Amino acid sequence: MNRKTSKVVIYTTAWCPYCIKAKALLSKKNINYTEIRVDLEPWQRSIMIEKSGGRRTVPQIFIDNEAIGGCADLFSLDQQRKLDDLFASI
């Protein structure tokens, strides 16, 4: 059973290396996520842009509906040990 209870949504495309890298980090940390592929569902891109405050690139990552940014932002949170803090509660 996964101890990570926060809701994570990641907007991606199949060919994006940063999307693959971000998903790999989430998986490594045993963090469940919902993936929304904007290449398969193009209408989702406008939702992503609106939710992220205008960001158009993928990945866009949201934790509990809060935009945290892209791959570099996710890795920065991890390097600062803040990513684990977001999922510390059971």
Give me the oligomer status.
single chain
Helix content: 25-40%
Number of helices: 4
Based on helices, strands and strand pairing, what is the structural class? alpha+beta
Radius of gyration: 12 Å
Question: What is the helix/strand order?
Answer: EHEHEEHH
Going across the major beta sheet, what is the strand order?
2-1-3-4
CATH superfamily: Glutaredoxin
Given the C-alpha coordinates, what overall shape results? globular
Tell me the fraction of residues in β-strands, as a range: 15-25%
What name does the CATH topology carry?
Answer: Glutaredoxin
Number of E-type strands: 4
Care to describe what's here?
- The protein has a 4-stranded mixed β-sheet, sandwiched between helices.
- It has a single domain (8-87), classed as Glutaredoxin, CATH 3.40.30.10.
- The model has no long low-confidence stretch (mean pLDDT 91).
- Helix 1 packs parallel to helix 3 (71-79).
- It is built from 4 helices and 4 strands; from the N terminus they run βαβαββαα.
- The chain is an alpha+beta fold.
- It has helices at 17-28, 43-51, 71-79, 82-86; strands at 8-12, 34-37, 60-63, 66-69.
- It starts with 7 loop residues before the first strand and ends with a helix.
